[in-house]
Amino acid sequence: MEWKGELEQVLAIRKLGNSIMDRRNFIGLLAAPLFLQQLKRSRKKNTDKQATTKFIYSQAMKRAHNEHWEKLPIGELMGNLGMLLLGTPYVGGTLEGDGPEVCRIDLTGLDCVTYFENVLCMARVAKKHKHTIQDFYNEVIFTRYRQGEIAGYTSRLHYTSDWISDNEAKHVVTDITPQLGGIPFPNRVSFMSANPKYYAPLVSDPALVNEIISIEQRLNSTPRTYIPKDKIADCEGALQTGDIIAIATSKAGLDYAHTGIIYKSNDGIAHLLHASLTKKKVILDVSISDYVKGVKSHTGITVVRPAEV
Asked: What's residue 276's pLDDT?
């Protein structure tokens, strides 16, 4: 569903709140529209994206601290933080820039990957009882880069299957797809090496393409599982708020085409909470099974669950 203004958003949240797990979660949801109003005012006053990003982060962490969200399971904490970002504009390419690879964070505009990544990292920081912007950067570096260290462009986890494998090894997430009845996923990534023209660092340093090829070969030889689209509804009852969803695609050279977070209510509906390219902003959408069915090239999902910190 797409939110259509502040009044509609409040009414929708009230309706959803009738089936939310507990009163603390409902209070957090009711606060989301006010939070968004504050962010809109901040964006109008300040065109400095880094300053606004710091403001968004500080306000989200303040809300989490004041409402004691760090006491919630990490998945529910992610759900609350993710709802605070409803309406954030969809913006792609925020991780790219001139010069050597650095960790870039921009909460003023999010794509599907930076949305779930930032929500996960804010939740991990809160769970550790930390709060500074540097704590946040450190957490993003840990999850975004291979083995948690920046070592050039190819150390960034570009493919979602690479992100999943590396963050499983770092005990950030657990791939629960096999327990949900997942079947072997025919991973055949090759898009980056086949299309270096779309990636400025690969254009400026063609030698990096060989490194990308090695990464792709390793990913293609690593067993993965997924739940086919016609079986997703059967496992929705086992999904939890905060589960990270990677949506598999039939598009050549790619593993997953989209990502998001599950936001689940007691009526059993596992909503997809995500940065939507078509709606141009972060929205709370239909159930994950209905969402995947709505796109022909989507073939299924892989589900990873955030680990408690």
From this structure: 98
